[in-house]
Amino acid sequence: MKVKGGRGGTVRLRLDETEASLLRNLIAEMQMLLEADIPDGDAVKQRLFPRAYEDPANEETFRDLTSGDLENAKLAALREVRDSIGERGSVEVEIGPDDVGSWLRLLTDLRLAIGVRLDVTEETMSAEIDPDDPNAGALSVLHWLGWVQGSILERIEG
Q: 115, 94, 99, 107: which is closest to 146 by C-alpha?
C-alpha cells in the first residue's frame, strides 16, 4: 500500500491486488452485516449503532427517528468506496475532500466490527501479534486497516 498527498486536499491510495482483494472482501462482509436482520443484542451491531439514551423509551424514539439514516449513511459510504476500487485487480484511487469522509467512516466501521468480534483491548492492539494465535490473521487485518486509515489522515492533515 502506498498513500500520497495530492493536490487540492486529495489523497492518492495505491493497493496491490492482494490488498485490494482483501478490502473488497471486507466491504462485502460489512454490506451483508448491515443489510442482515441481526438481533439488537449483537455486539457488533451495538458497537456500530451505539445507544444514545439510557432510558429505553427515549432510545426507542431516537432509533425510530435516526436508525435508518445512520444505516443508510454507512451503506452509502460502503458503496462509494466499493465503487471507487472496482471489482478486481490492483487499485489506484484519488480520494478527494468529498470522498474522504466515506473512506474514513467505512474503515472505522470495519475496524470496529473486527475488533468487537476479536474482543480486542488496548493491550491486545499494542502487543506483538503471536503467529500461533488463531486470531493472528484477523489481528493483522485489523492493524492494516488502522494503518490505512492513519495514513489517509496524515496526508489529509499534512
A: 107
